[in-house]
Amino acid sequence: MAAGKKGDKTHLVILKCKDPVIGMIGLLQWVDPVWPAPEKIPSAVDYGMPTFVVDSDDCMALYERAVKLDSVIHSEPHEWSIRGATGDMIDFLGMSLFDPDGHFFEVNQRLG
Q1: Would you list the domain boundaries of the chain?
Q2: From the CB of residue 51, how many other CB atoms can be counted at a distance below 10 Å?
Q3: pLDDT digits (tens, 9 = 90+) for 2-29
Q4: What's residue 103's pLDDT?
Q5: Do residues 100 and 69 touch, judged by C-beta distance below 8 A?
Q6: Nearest to 72 by CA among 45, 37, 35
Q7: pLDDT band at 38 (very low <50, low <70, confident <90, very high)
Q8: Topology of the domain covering 39-110
Q9: d(CA 16, CA 12)
Q10: 17 with 54: CB under 8 angstroms?
Q11: Integer Cα distance of 79 and 95 in angstroms
């Protein structure tokens, strides 16, 4: 891995979902040596910051858990729609937040 040094130990988790094209993410953690957390955890969207877009079965429950964890809520749950590839409208309940580590997530629940 270009970001580490020879001999560094890492832990890689690859998660897959139902989508065969875009439904995969690899999460890499430095185990030895442990990389320190930044002094200030991000709480605003900034240049170059990734957005993790995920699907949820229960957006409201996720929102309630996030509030209990004092997560930074960027936008509260709200309904929105988009025209899909087939021309049909798709309705969502969506929200966005920073997790406790400062990662930015857009969370969507399909409605109907």
Answers
A1: 39-110
A2: 10
A3: 677 888 899 999 988 877 666 788 888 8
A4: 92
A5: yes
A6: 45
A7: confident
A8: 3.30.720
A9: 13
A10: no
A11: 9
CA angle 56, 23, 90 (to 5 degrees): 50
Tokens matching residue 33: 């040596």
Dihedral, 52, 58, 59, 63 alpha carbons, nearest 10: -100
The model scores a pTM over 0.90: no
Q: Is 32 helix (H, G, I), strand (E, B) or coil?
A: strand
Longest dimension (CA), the chain: 52
- Mapped onto helix, strand or coil, the DSSP state of residue 59 is helix
| Omega before 42 within 30 of 0, i.e. cis | no
User: Which amino acid is residue 50, in one-letter code?
Assistant: P
**pLDDT tens-digit map of 53-90:** 999 999 999 999 999 999 999 999 999 999 988 999 99
